[in-house]
Design a protein that fits this description.
Layout lengths: L2 H29 L5 H19 L4 H17 L2 H17 L3
Helix pairs in contact: 3-4
Length: 98
């Protein structure tokens, strides 16, 4: 390999390391700030935003299956049970011709 390739590899390695260090330092500063409470809620908010964006524009059976899965999540507080119930509801609605 020529020196240009090695320079590019070195530059990309430094950039990747810098991004990780910046994230680490930023995380430390956020945890020490008055906005640290938002970090506790962030994983749930990310999941809700992913589910909401994936449901946008979907047909009614998908929404019904999502509602059934939400009910299972509230009752069981178990991720795998929630997924199983949601998939079963969606399959059942498909079997019924919806």
């Amino acid at each position: 390999m020529s020196g240009t390739y090695w320079a590019l590899i070195g530059l990309l390695a430094v950039a990747a390391f810098s991004i990780r260090v910046a994230g680490l330092l930023g995380g430390v500063r956020i945890r020490a700030s008055r906005h640290a409470w938002m970090l506790d809620e962030l994983p749930g908010l990310i999941v809700v935003s992913l589910v909401a964006s994936s449901l946008a524009g979907q047909p009614l059976p998908t929404w019904i299956a999502a509602g059934v899965a939400l009910g299972a999540a509230i009752m069981t507080n178990h991720v795998i049970a929630t997924m199983a119930v949601g998939v079963a509801a969606y399959a059942g609605l498909g079997w019924l011709g919806m």
